[in-house]
Amino acid sequence: MLSNQFVKKLILTVLIYLLINIPLIRTFAQENRVKDVKYYLSNLPFSAPDIKAPEFPDRQFNIQNFGAIGDGITLNTNAFAKAINECSNSGGGTVIVPPGIWLTGPIKLESNVNLHLEKGALILLSKNHEDYPIILLEGSTRYSVASPVYGFNLKNIAITGPGIIDGSGETWRPVKKSKLTESEWNKLVSSGGVLSDEGQVWWPSKSALDGAEYLKNLKSKKPTAEELLPARDYLRPYMVLLVNCKNVLLDGTTFENSPKFVLYPNKCDNLIIRNVKVLNEYWAQNGDGIDISACKNVLLYNNLVNAGDDGICMKSSGKSKDGQANLENIIIRDCVVYHAHGGFVIGSNTDGGMNNIYVDNCNFIGTDIGLRFKSGRNNGGLVHNIFISNIYMKDIIHEAILFTTFYADTPVGGVNLSAEANNKTPIFKDFHISNIFCDGAEQAVKVAGLPEMPIQDIELTNVTINSKKGFTSNEAENFKLNNVRIFPEKGVIYSLKNSSGFSLNNVECPKGTDVFMKLEGEKTKDIHITNSNLSNAKEKFEFGNNVKPDVVLQN
């Protein structure tokens, strides 16, 4: 038996130890958090500002104290608004969402507020669209349906914690028959809603189906909120919309089932998105995962995405000021994308320009396209200084790597019709892509530039792709391929059309190759091949009309 005196001494010793060491433990934890962010901002290929997570006062506001009831039946819109406003007006702090099902209409964030979802907390957005007012977007003359979670012109905001936000997107989104199995389609149709005239698209409501036609027939160029009400079901909101906000953190939360894009920060500065899960069904129309739009100084890491459209996407709209890119200094590391139209995507809106993007150590599994870079005529700007490394892909449905500045523009007869370059012509240049591995794709690499502006100055280093088809380019200039290994099931490995200034060093020509390289187009010239054994090819080169054999120099 231990004496009472011994027990008292033991308790006193433990208390003294804790009093001495708790500050040290807290400091160590804080340093680890800083080190965590600093790690992801280290060894970058460009200089980027120090990106920091916002900090909040040690004040808590539990939504239950403001009348919220987590039964999945009670509408808690007012309780969320009261808790968030009280927190912000008190100088900031954390709004606590405890375990429960918290039904609510749109949640408007305020400055200096951390909306924290505890484990077991599920914020369920209302399926009643009358709960979503049509609001005037900040800094705009345009009205829109209020997003499930939104904030304009805010500073120091966060959504954190291991809880879940469900956007009830199934009540908003149309569904294409081609994306479902027969049994899935039949179940969906029997659940209600209406079909398009052709019977190929299911809509949740008649007003959603008729919305486009209603808006088309509106006489007003700038319709009022009241005029837009009949089209509310059609005007699907983004799930989390943050506009012109500074010092933003999204950390640890699951965001799922969005009406449109899931996370859509627009014109934000100093943004961190980490440890989040973004989940949409693969048939979710326009169900992009994370869309970074015209933002600067952004860090994304350790995120998981499954989306109905693009996975992690960069957008940049609007005229840039003083020639500076509207989207700049973006770091993306240690992320995983499953189903999506693209794993990492640039575009299609690029007219605001993009500069300094770094993507590193990511997995894309089952995505339609792995690395997807897209823009189109009259919708583009300068996109440059793009660095992508250590990407590991599996079972890519289409291209492992795709460049196209012909997006949403249909060439006649498969030929790119020429046009004059202007200030909205997309320019893709200075891409540095290295250490790329892909096990399974329909095509390894596809490059489709414009006659008036080819895709240019692209480096591919240490690339290994196992695919059905090889590398094709049309309207491309100054490509450097070093240690590139493409293993197509059949056909030509490299098909170059109107492509010039290609340098291939130490590239693979696997056994059973019929034709190593096919060259077409009067612009094709200056093709240099070094340190490469092409003896496995039955035919090394195939020259089309207007291409002479001397365009290829082999050492």
Structure description:
A hairpin with a 6-residue loop joins β7 (134-136) and β8. Among the domains are: 1-40; 309-410 and 421-555, Pectate Lyase C-like (3 Solenoid). The chain is built from five helices and 38 strands. The strands form three sheets. The chain has a 33-stranded parallel beta sheet that branches. Strands 12-14-13 form a three-stranded antiparallel beta sheet. Helix content is 13%, strand content 43%.
What does the secondary structure layout of this molecule look like, with pairings?
Elements: H1 4-40, E1 60-62, H2 77-89, E2 93-97, E3 100-104, E4 107-108, E5 113-117, E6 121-125, E7 134-136, E8 143-145, E9 149-152, E10 155-160, E11 164-166, E12 175-176, H3 182-190, E13 194-195, E14 201-203, H4 206-216, H5 225-228, E15 240-243, E16 246-251, E17 254-256, E18 263-266, E19 269-274, E20 277-279, E21 290-293, E22 296-301, E23 304-306, E24 310-315, E25 327-333, E26 336-337, E27 342-346, E28 354-365, E29 371-374, E30 382-404, E31 427-448, E32 455-467, E33 469-488, E34 494-505, E35 515-520, E36 525-530, E37 539-543, E38 552-554
Parallel strand pairs: 1-2, 2-5, 3-6, 4-9, 5-10, 6-11, 9-15, 10-16, 11-17, 15-18, 16-19, 17-20, 18-21, 19-22, 20-23, 21-24, 22-25, 23-26, 24-27, 25-28, 26-28, 27-29, 28-30, 29-30, 30-31, 31-32, 31-33, 32-33, 33-34, 34-35, 34-36, 35-37, 36-38
Antiparallel strand pairs: 7-8, 12-14, 13-14
